[in-house]
Design a protein that fits this description.
The chain is an alpha/beta fold and 147 residues long. It has 2 helices and 8 strands.
Amino acid sequence: MSFQTGHIGLNVTDLDRSREFYERVFGFAVAGESREEGRRYAFLAQDGTLVLTLWQQSESRFAAGLPGLHHLSFQVPDLDAVRRAETVIRDLGAKIHHDGVVPHGEGASSGGVFFEDPDGIRLEIFAPDAAGDRPAPTAGAPTCGFF
């Protein structure tokens, strides 16, 4: 038996704000949505494949200190794609950790940008070659684990 991720569902406080954020940062397209009060949601797709579902069911920001989701990571082809995403993230005023693109660990060739969505959900956009010769922000531990 083989498993792969089907899609990811996130609870959000403001569906319109979150939908716009994910559309702008990731280029996802709305594949379906409900505006019915008490049952608001949006299905976001890439190239016709469902990737993310947003459910307006939260009353407060994401609590990183509770059991559950740690972060979501999305891979792009190269450093240029990471930089393009970083520009959009900065334009939106999202919280960025580590002050921009960093490696996954000391000496790693992969790296990315670590940031938060409007509800504080931790996100990562990375590429296999995005680290360059930059130092890792955390010695002896994976960057994606501690932000």
